[in-house]
Amino acid sequence: QWATIRIEKGVKKPQPQILKTPAANGIIERDETPMEKEIARLHRVDFEFSDIFYFCRKGFEAIVEDEVTQRFSSEELVSWNLLTRTNVNFHYISLRLTVVWVIGVIVRYCFLLPLRFTLAAIGITSMIVGTTMVGQLPNSSVKNYLSEVVHLTCSRILVRALSGTIHYHNKENKPQKGGICVANHTSPIDAIILTNDGCYAMVGQVHGGLMGVIQRATVKACPHVWFERSEIKDRHLVTKRLREHVADKSKLPILIFPEGTCINNTSVMMFKKGSFEIGGTIYPVAIKYDPQFGDAFWNSSKYNIVSYLLRIMTSWAIVCNVWYMPPMVRKEGEDAVQFANRVKSAIARQGGLTELPWDGGLKRAKVKDTFKEQQQKNYSKMLVRNGSIG
């Protein structure tokens, strides 16, 4: 707070008047008037050349700042909190504040980082060794119990390695066996945040390297569902394997992140419908990180996993809130897409996140032609409707 006040006092240049205009949607003030009302002001029976100005303006708004790509960059802090000097609001204030920042760097890199790295190494090694040993036991309640003990213990060690401070709310709604836990996705550590409080069966693609070693060890002790790259493209095969898992009420709940990619802790984007076609009970979970202590978002387009983990482990701490929400089931007459949207809306409301209809795949892919065609259809329907009225 003190640093924020100093920053505000240090700004001597008057800000342009345009920046004082309230713009709740970003750096520009958008006109959210629907296309039907916007064009209806101008005329209204047939196509007119002036109609293109509406689409041009919307295009310019998207170029300046669209609501999708800004969700894939780190959440901007309100004030500088001694974590970094890259905040756009930061500029040199005083020698005293600079000295404090330098001391913070020394503490985080020279003291906290070695301790955290040691804890992480202990946690990962214990996970591999423990699950491998448990995996040699015959299937029984004892094996399941020991597997849960190993997973919980190692996950809690890894959370300590991140200096994690996690607040779990409404624990009476925790996912139960035979169910499906779905949560918004901000970081690869989301899974550790949740397994710190309970055991889950993970779903994901088979990897190589250290991650592959961990996957092969853990699957011996716990019924995780790992897919080969060729299998993941076969939706029917994936659905079949997940349904078989959910049908067994003795197995751990499946943990799925339906967005399919990491979003920057401000929004929830489109949930893929596959998780909601399986059947069974859905247990929604909302995760919200506090960016003042450390930026948990993984911008995979900018940082590889090693660089990301280094940034995480050199933050002061990872602080977040986790809300377990009441279980939800698919209503009669509701398709998978509608069910997914209903669950997404509930998670967004609980976590105080912005709900967006866009596919997180736009992080690396172009907009599908179907989205463009939908706008064309809406425009043509509007003309036909207005023409019939005339």
Automatic annotation (TrEMBL):
Regions that span the bilayer: 90-111
Chief location of this protein within or outside the cell: endoplasmic reticulum
Alphabetical UniProt keywords: Acyltransferase, Endoplasmic reticulum, Lipid biosynthesis, Lipid metabolism, Membrane, Phospholipid biosynthesis, Phospholipid metabolism, Transferase, Transmembrane, Transmembrane helix
All copies of domain Phospholipid/glycerol acyltransferase, residue ranges: 179-290
InterPro entries: LPCAT1-like, Plipid/glycerol_acylTrfase
Subcellular location: Endoplasmic reticulum membrane
One GO process term, biological-process aspect: triglyceride biosynthetic process
Record's keyword annotation contains Lipoprotein: no
Pathway(s) annotated for this protein in UniProt: Phospholipid metabolism; CDP-diacylglycerol biosynthesis; CDP-diacylglycerol from sn-glycerol 3-phosphate: step 1/3; Lipid metabolism; Glycerolipid metabolism; triacylglycerol biosynthesis
CDD domains: LPLAT_LPCAT1-like (cd07991)
Membrane topology, as annotated: Multi-pass membrane protein
Keyword Lipid biosynthesis in record: yes
A Pfam family that the UniProt record links to this protein: Acyltransferase
Highest rank taxon of the organism: Eukaryota
One Gene Ontology molecular-function label: glycerol-3-phosphate O-acyltransferase activity
GO cellular component, one term: endoplasmic reticulum membrane
Family: Belongs to the 1-acyl-sn-glycerol-3-phosphate acyltransferase family.
Listed name of the protein: GPAT3 acyltransferase
